[in-house]
Every structure is written in structure tokens, then in C-alpha cells.
Amino acid sequence: MDSKIIKKSKIINSLIYGLELIIVVTILVLEYLSSFKAGVMRHLYSKKIEYLAKIYTEKGMMIHTIIIVFLFVTLAFVFKNSLSKKRKLNFIRFLLYVIILISGFYLPYMKDLNTYVYILIFLEIFIGIEAMKLLLEKIKPQL
């Protein structure tokens, strides 16, 4: 029974990592194409302006930062004594996403990219997924 759960867990983790890789490659390709193709650049730029005006305003960025820091502190408190090797890797990945996202909010270089909002959306989604994976691993031994 446990081996089936472990196999399913490995398959799900592999799918998540594959999806992350596909999204990163897609964002890089879109950024590359935006310098050559006017239609791609126009679409990315208009979406960037739209999202920056609605979701990623200055107040919105502060709220996103507060939520992410709260999530990080909560997970750090929950796992302060019970980090196995696998959990440490997931926690380090979660921490890396948090650092990249928070630096992405405030670095001028990131804001100049045409895919800026897509990068932020990608990072927020995968921070949530990594947090859920960490919490599920914490709950799994108790089941």
C-alpha cells in the first residue's frame, strides 16, 4: 500500500517539475520572441500594462509580499523541528521561489521585461503548490 502511494507521489512530483520547466521555457521563449515579433511584443506589453494597473499595483504588491512572508513564517514555524531530507529540498525550493518573487517585485531589471507579470503569476502559483506539497507531506505520516 505504501509503495503505491510513494509511486503516485513521485509521479505527481515529476509532473509538477515538468510543468514548471515547460512554463519557464515558455516564458523565456516569449521574452525572446518579443524582441523580434511585433505582435508578440504588443500582446505581452498590453497584458503587462493591464495586470500592473489592476493586480500588481503598489498596494497590491505590498499585500502579495505580506501574504508570502506570512506563509513563509508559518511554514518555517510548522517545520522547524521536523524537516527530513525530502522536506528540506521542498522547503529550499519554496524559499527560492519566495526570494525570487519578492526580488521580482522590486528589481528594476525584472520590471523592464515584457513577461514580467507572467513571471510573477508563475512564481505565485508555484509558491502555492510547493506550500501545499510541504503541508501534505507533514500530514501524510499522520494518516
From TrEMBL:
Transmembrane stretches, start-end: 12-33, 61-79, 91-109, 115-136
Domain of life: Bacteria
Record has Transmembrane helix as a keyword: yes
Keyword entries, A-Z: Membrane, Transmembrane, Transmembrane helix
Organism field: Clostridium grantii DSM 8605
Protein name: Uncharacterized protein
